[in-house]
């Protein structure tokens, strides 16, 4: 069974992260399936825009610690989202953690319900938000990121909008997105693609400049003794040994 659901309405292709049993964690299988679905959208002349959403109460819990994707595979997926010649809109009605926030940042527009929460939890398991910093750092407030990267604190939807992780939030996320999707449906496909190229140029420069170094950093940290302790503690639902 594929971990990605697909539906289409009036030129808008919706891709749903559909592994609720793992809180839509980024497993090797989910990353590969989402990459394939995005590639199909790019080749389909009937698709005007892509909506990335989810089943269950969590948009994405970050990396699947039992079946993590290779760091370069996650980099490739994030870059694919940024470079896709179609607008990508994130629709969030659940919680977002770590690598899931990277997915949001790689989308062109992101909206969430007021009940959604967000956190960069990497530091709490002994690693760093290395790979996901590629789309996050160019798009969000540096002072806010310093706090939330270093502490792993939760943000609510209003704060996520304030710091630039979200475009908008509201009680009804579909009402928030209705005028966005209407605007995309009314826009010329060629103009959308060229305008997206203008908007993402600096983000892609960051990928091309820093991806190799950050992929190596991610691999080194994930194989470290402190990360093994942090991930074991997480899976055992206890504090890691460094908590004071």
UniProtKB/TrEMBL annotation:
Xref: Gene3D superfamilies: 3.30.300.220, 3.90.226.20, Lyase 2-enoyl-coa Hydratase, Chain A, domain 2
Q: Known InterPro entries for this protein? A: ClpP/crotonase-like_dom_sf, Enoyl-CoA_hydra/iso, Enoyl-CoA_hydra_C, Enoyl-CoA_Hydratase/Isomerase
Q: Name one Pfam family in it.
A: ECH_1
Does Lyase show up as a keyword for this record? Answer: yes
Q: Which PANTHER family match?
A: ENOYL-COA HYDRATASE, POLYKETIDE BIOSYNTHESIS ENOYL-COA HYDRATASE PKSH-RELATED
Class of enzymatic activity (EC top level) = lyase
Q: Which family does it belong to?
A: Belongs to the enoyl-CoA hydratase/isomerase family.
**Name this protein carries in UniProt:** Enoyl-CoA hydratase
Instruction: Quote the EC number.
Output: 4.2.1.17
Q: Which NCBIfam families match?
A: PRK07827.1
Give the Gene Ontology MF terms in alphabetical order: enoyl-CoA hydratase activity
Keywords from UniProt, A to Z, are: Lyase
UniProt xrefs under SUPFAM superfamilies: ClpP/crotonase
> Key word Lyase present in the record?
yes
């Amino acid at each position: 069974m594929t971990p990605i659901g697909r539906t289409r309405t009036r030129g808008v292709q919706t891709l749903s992260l559909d592994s609720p049993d793992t809180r839509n964690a980024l497993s090797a299988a989910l990353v590969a399936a989402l990459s394939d679905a995005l590639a199909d959208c790019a080749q389909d002349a009937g698709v005007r825009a892509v909506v990335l959403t989810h089943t269950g109460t969590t948009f994405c819990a970050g990396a699947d610690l039992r079946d993590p994707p290779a760091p370069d595979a996650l980099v490739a997926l994030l870059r694919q989202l940024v470079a896709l010649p179609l607008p990508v809109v994130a629709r969030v009605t659940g919680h977002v953690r770590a690598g899931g926030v990277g997915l949001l940042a790689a989308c062109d527009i992101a909206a969430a319900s007021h009940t959604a929460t967000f956190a960069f939890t990497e530091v709490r398991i002994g690693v760093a938000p290395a790979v996901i910093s590629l789309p996050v750092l160019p798009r969000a407030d540096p002072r806010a990121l310093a706090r939330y990267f270093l502490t792993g604190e939760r943000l609510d939807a209003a704060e996520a909008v304030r710091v630039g992780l979200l475009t908008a939030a509201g009680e009804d996320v579909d009402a928030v997105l209705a005028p966005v999707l209407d605007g995309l449906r009314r826009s010329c496909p060629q103009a959308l693609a060229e305008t997206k190229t203008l908007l993402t140029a600096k983000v892609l420069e960051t990928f091309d400049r820093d991806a190799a170094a950050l992929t190596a950093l991610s691999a080194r940290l994930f194989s470290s003794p402190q990360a093994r302790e942090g991930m074991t503690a997480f899976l055992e639902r206890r504090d890691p040994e460094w908590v004071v």
